Amino acid sequence: MRRAIMIIVIVALAVCLLGVAIDLRSFLQAWLVATLTWGMLPLGAVAVLLIHGLTGGAWGNESRYLWQALASTTHLFLLAMLVPLLGMSWLMPWTAPVETLPEVVRHKLLYLNMPFFVIRNLLYALIWGGLAWWLCQPRQHRRAHAPGAILWVLAFTFFGFDWFMSLEPKFYSDVFGLELMTLAVSSAMALGLLLCAPMLRPAIRSDIANLWLGMLLGWAFMAFSQLIIIWSGNMPHEIGWYLQRTSGSWRPIGRLAFALFLFVPFLMLLSSSLKRRASWLQVTAAICLVGHVLHMQWMLWPAFSKWPANQAWLGPAALIAVGGLGYLWLSRALSTNLNRNLSENLTGRAIEQGGRHG
């Protein structure tokens, strides 16, 4: 299985290299969309570890090895983001000559300029890479989780401004960062349940499913709050963001993404007894992850005004390449963490039995 995935990834990377030679701009767009799509998952896992560090609970103690394995792929995400960072002049419309930019965009150039943009992204990398490394250590100081969570939220907020909103620099929303945060955590929890639900006790599965459902509802609240505020305010630049995503083929794609990411999982997680079943949760999680992928395409692709024919094969190739690399990294980390977790549990039981006999 692992060897077959490696072959598929190598083929997908070769297709991406072909895209570099044929159409660099299209390749950069496809690579950015793929990296942001899969990059939400490790960033969400970092947040799950921080949440458990702040609140505690058996659900996190027993599933910690899973979230640590997923969080360890943060470093792969940061490496993949170097490609669009180096090619930002082909991606970001605000890098065009100042005299060609709309007035509303010119007012944002104090923030949207290349040197400051690069500095901010290096800071995000330091924060997220440092948090992922620290949270994957066997022991952490509990008091450090609160400032860690604050740094994660701030970095995620400005990262959303930089790599999502600035693709369409006329658009602005205060809620956008919060929507992305809940999206990332919801998707990470879905992936965790898809991979490891059978390895968890029914009570733990139920606890994680309840947290997951609450996060999905939090995403729905943020997404609808943003829509209602912008639509009722009748702000032309902000409404344009939605108009692009509710025209043509993006309208049915958006509706399908909403149904798969939120509506169907919400209905499937209403039953307390079904939330304890591993197979039921895995099916629910798989549906949610398909919705996540579709939703990310719906959010990002309309930002690019032109849709070259090359995207028909470059887009899927980039998704497969980045996602396959992430899966290979994750599977190896998960196997290592499982063996370590099993060894620690056996050692703990032996010590406990020895103490009883003593």
Topology:
Layout: H1 2-22, H2 24-55, H3 58-71, H4 74-80, H5 82-86, H6 88-91, H7 103-106, H8 114-135, H9 145-163, H10 176-196, H11 202-233, H12 236-245, H13 250-268, H14 278-300, H15 311-357
Helix pairs in contact: 1-2, 1-15, 2-3, 2-4, 2-8, 2-9, 2-10, 2-14, 2-15, 3-11, 3-15, 8-9, 9-10, 10-11, 10-14, 11-13, 13-14
Task: Give a structural overview.
By secondary structure, this protein is mostly helical. The protein is built from 15 helices and no strands. Helix 2 runs antiparallel to helix 3 (58-71) and helix 3 packs across helix 15. The N and C termini lie far apart (47 Å). 39% of the residues are buried.
Structural class by sheet pairing and helices: mainly alpha
Query: What is the number of beta strands?
Result: 0
Overall average pLDDT? 91
- Structural Rg: 21 Å
